Amino acid sequence: MNERRMKRISSVTAGMVLMGSLLAGLLSSRSEGKPPADTVMARRTGGGLGRILSGDQVESILRGAKAVQKTWENLTPEQEYYIGRAVAAQVFQTYRPLDRPAANTYLNLLGQSLAVFSGRPETFGGYHFLLLDSDEINAFAAPGGLILVTRGMVRCCENEDELAAVVAHEISHVEKKHGLKAIKQGRLTEAFTIIAAESTAQAGNKQLAALTREFEGSVGDVVKTLTTSGYSRDQEREADAAAVRLLQGAGYPDRAMITMLQRMDKRLANARGLGFAKTHPSARSRIDALRKTIKDTESAPDLVRQQRFSAAMQPLLAGR
Amino acid sequence: MRTKVLLVLLAVSAGVALAAPMSVQVRNGKVRATPSQLGAVVVTVDYGAQVQAGTPERGWYPVTTIDGKTGWLHESALSKKPIAMRAGTTDAATGASSDEVALAGKGFNEQVEANLRKEGKLDYAWVDRMSAFKVDANEISRFLKEGHLPGGDQ
């Protein structure tokens, strides 16, 4: 090795050490309370900041440090799609899908016809709808557009317009990305740090295992919110308001939102603390918040819509 | 006359300057003939593809695809950020294939899902089945029309 090259290498190495110490200073200055995730990452990968880092590693860690700032808003539609798929798969562990092709086809026609009027008509994998074999009055929206409606919820709806109100509300949760907002920031910080620091990883498989762990945690956060804790009142009202706009866009009488909530309120009177009642604010408060935005006063139900709703959902409505 | 020509030239060049590259951020971006979800599909563009996008009108961008086709894409299908499809190169130190590194680098993705499937933690059979429910624009138009829903007249 010639002298000039030796000098060049030693000056590059000195630069790396300097960058390493600057980075260590940056990280330690933020070390009050919870250790920043990028510090955790450095420890995990065994890449100790005290040793000389390669240019790629320093760059990756610096990118990792920036990743700490990232939130649910930085999740791409593709990442949202994979989270949504896992959320739906996990919901299916508790709620069995209802294998009724005609009813599911109708629900998809209705749902996708509404989704085109949403503020977010396009998601990575599109909107898809499925009935659940449960008497519980409930509906769930997994991120990215996988929407699940229980048989109990369909039985609660008097007509297509009311079912459209339910579906519009769920589409609006997807539009507003409420599911993603339920993911704990710490998990996202970890995940984005792993993503940003790819070239510091000592083993691809370990990195994948760590990502899978954060992914499972994120999915768990969303499922818990959907099935147990519920969205915030503000988020529910936001979804209600967007649902009314959606119904108006498609041409459904927006009053269906009010009649659906009233009907649910009656049915849920005996089911306080269960299903939808557990995860949603009271119908009364939701109706009060909506009154000013409802344009349609009273209109007779449309016969064609009434008939196609009854025909498609007949097996679910029997004995109602 | 000369001023008029100058103004026209200025307007045209401003229009060209306003066109900016954007990336398709959905699996199948449908470029439509009219700015409507019910408009005829001119061409389908894949995830990550770049298009030249003009000034949006009520949520719709006029776009030109890489092979020169023009139409409209809804803003929810587009991102201003470039989407790196395969960023990684073979990393000898990790022993992982370039695809593994690239996919893991992209975060929550099909590789993570495959890992979960392999561990038998989640059953995706019904997720795949429900994702296969497809409804096209013609069926939607018919559904709206037959149900006397005026939204379909847009």
Shape of chain B, please?
flat
Using only C-alpha atoms, the radius of gyration of chain A works out to 25 Å
Mean pLDDT of chain B: 80
Order of helices and strands of chain A: HHHHHEEEHHHHHHHHHH
Largest sheet of chain B: 5 strands, antiparallel
CATH architectural group of the largest domain in chain B: Roll
**Count of folded domains of chain B:** 2
Q: Mind summarizing the main beta sheet of chain A?
A: 3 strands, mixed
Q: Per DSSP, what share of the residues of chain A sits in E-state strands of 2 or more residues?
A: under 5%
Q: How big is the Rg of chain B?
A: 21 Å
Which chains make the largest contact?
A-B, 65 and 56 residues
CATH-defined fold name of the largest domain in chain B: SH3 type barrels
- Based on Cα principal axes, name the global outline of chain A: globular
Distance from first to last alpha carbon of chain B: 40 Å
Q: Regions of chain A with pLDDT < 50 over 5+ consecutive residues?
A: 5-51, 199-203
The helix count of chain A comes to: 15
Please, could you describe this protein's structure?
The complex is a heterodimer of chains A (320) and B (154). Chain A is mainly alpha-helical. Chain A has 15 helices and 3 strands. In chain A, strand 2 (139-142) and strand 3 (146-150) form a beta hairpin. In chain A, helix 3 packs antiparallel against helix 9. Chain A is globular, with a radius of gyration of 25 Å. Residues 5-51 and 199-203 of chain A have low confidence and may be disordered. The longest helix of chain B has 17 residues, at 2-18. Chain B folds into 2 domains: 2-79, SH3 type barrels (Roll); 98-153, no CATH class. Mean pLDDT of chain B is 80; it is low at 11-16 and 86-105. Chain B is an alpha+beta fold and 154 residues long. Classes of the chains: A mainly alpha (320), B alpha+beta (154). At the A-B interface, helix 4, helix 5, strand 1, helix 9 and helix 10 of A face helix 2, helix 3, helix 4 and helix 5 of B.
